[in-house]
């Protein structure tokens, strides 16, 4: 773990490191301590399980992605990544090497990368399967879930219901039947896997939980954060910000995410052995499941 950054003690700031709240706090502390000019240096001290430490000089580099803002938070980088599992990866998993399995990942739900996300899905409509990686994605613009779900669902079904004191809003999926260039397409109809972890929250949970309950996607990984209530930020006279929930949210079957999380259909990544070098237990399990969907069809 990170013990200190330029003398700022990370462990002391986050002594109760087993809770999910503490993990979010640690991430924020790390981001705050890591701010500075590009190419400037800082010293990171890492501590091992036995208390041993090692010091490493680090040079700040420009983050990849698009700089954007959310409410009262400082600017941060958003990005969307996509890749096709290589023949070598498939071979190592004893899977057919001619399978076209795509992994699409983005670190937060923000309009700044909406077009990139759309294009990532549209480039792979002929894939054999899509893995949507939402690990570490804390949420963002809730409305994006309806549009992104439309890349893999051809019906305007509801991902869930948001209820305030005055109104009710159904998160209806918007099937994407055309590209940004006006070309006619059909939403992807192959197997869809979604990967989550304890830092997947809010919109990520609405998206994953909604598609899971609708039977459109299978969820892998570990139980998500269980923090999906719609919320707003208000600036206080002290200079602090108050984040408060203003609505409830329930999934298509009436169940709640808050305090429960999205529970994986197939829990993965729970053992140390799952994270040996060059291993990604979550994605590997999702890829294996995708191939079984075609094997089951062949045997019918």
Task: Describe the 3D structure.
With 300 residues, the chain is α/β, with parallel strands linked by helices. It folds into two domains: 2-59, no CATH class; 76-298, 2-enoyl-CoA Hydratase, Chain A, domain 1 (Alpha-Beta Complex), CATH 3.90.226.10. It has helices at 10-13, 20-33, 87-92, 114-122, 144-149, 203-213, 281-298; strands at 2-5, 8-9, 41-47, 53-59, 66-68, 76-78, 80-84, 101-106, 129-133, 158-163, 168-172, 192-196, 218-221, 231-235, 241-245, 248-250, 266-267. The chain has a six-stranded mixed β-sheet, with helices on both faces. A hairpin with a 4-residue loop joins strand 10 and strand 11. The mean pLDDT is 88.
Topology of this protein?
Layout lengths: L1 E4 L2 E2 H4 L6 H14 L7 E7 L5 E7 L6 E3 L7 E3 L1 E5 L2 H6 L8 E6 L7 H9 L6 E5 L10 H6 L8 E6 L4 E5 L19 E5 L6 H11 L4 E4 L9 E5 L5 E5 L2 E3 L15 E2 L13 H18 L2
Parallel strand pairs: 8-9, 9-12, 12-13, 13-17
Antiparallel strand pairs: 1-2, 1-3, 3-4, 5-6, 7-8, 10-11, 10-16, 14-15
* Total beta strand runs: 17
So what's the CATH class of the largest domain?
Answer: Alpha Beta
According to CATH, the homologous superfamily of the largest domain is: 2-enoyl-CoA Hydratase, Chain A, domain 1
Provide the number of structural domains: 2
Structural class: alpha/beta
Radius of gyration from the alpha-carbon trace, in angstroms? 21 Å
Number of helices: 7
The CATH architecture assignment of the largest domain turns out to be: Alpha-Beta Complex
Distance between the termini: 50 Å
Shape: globular
């Amino acid at each position: 773990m990170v013990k200190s950054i330029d003398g700022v003690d990370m462990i002391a700031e986050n002594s109760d490191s087993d809770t999910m709240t503490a993990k979010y706090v640690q991430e924020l502390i790390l981001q705050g301590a890591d701010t500075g000019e590009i190419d400037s240096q800082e010293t990171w001290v890492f501590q091992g399980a036995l208390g041993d430490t090692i010091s490493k000089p680090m040079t700040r580099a420009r983050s990849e992605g698009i700089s954007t803002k959310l409410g009262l938070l400082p600017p941060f980088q958003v990005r969307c990544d996509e890749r096709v599992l290589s023949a070598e990866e498939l071979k190592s998993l004893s899977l057919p090497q001619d399978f076209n399995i795509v992994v699409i990942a983005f670190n937060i739900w923000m309009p700044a990368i909406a077009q990139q996300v759309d294009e990532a899905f549209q480039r792979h409509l002929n894939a054999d399967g899509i893995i949507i990686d939402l690990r570490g994605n804390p949420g963002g613009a809730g409305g994006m879930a309806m549009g992104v779900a439309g890349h893999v669902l051809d019906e305007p079904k509801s991902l869930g219901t948001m209820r305030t004191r005055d109104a009710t809003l159904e998160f209806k999926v918007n099937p994407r039947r055309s590209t940004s260039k006006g070309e006619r397409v059909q939403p992807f109809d192959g197997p869809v896997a979604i990967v989550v972890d304890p830092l997947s929250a809010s919109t990520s949970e609405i998206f994953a939980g909604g598609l899971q309950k609708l039977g459109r996607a299978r969820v892998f990984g570990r139980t998500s954060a269980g923090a999906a209530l719609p919320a707003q930020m208000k600036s206080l006279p002290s200079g602090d910000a108050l984040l408060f929930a203003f609505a409830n949210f329930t999934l298509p079957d009436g169940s709640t995410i808050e305090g429960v999380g999205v529970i994986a259909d197939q829990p993965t990544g729970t053992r140390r052995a799952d994270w040996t070098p060059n291993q990604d237990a979550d994605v590997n399990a999702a890829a294996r499941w995708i191939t079984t969907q075609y094997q089951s069809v062949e045997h019918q």
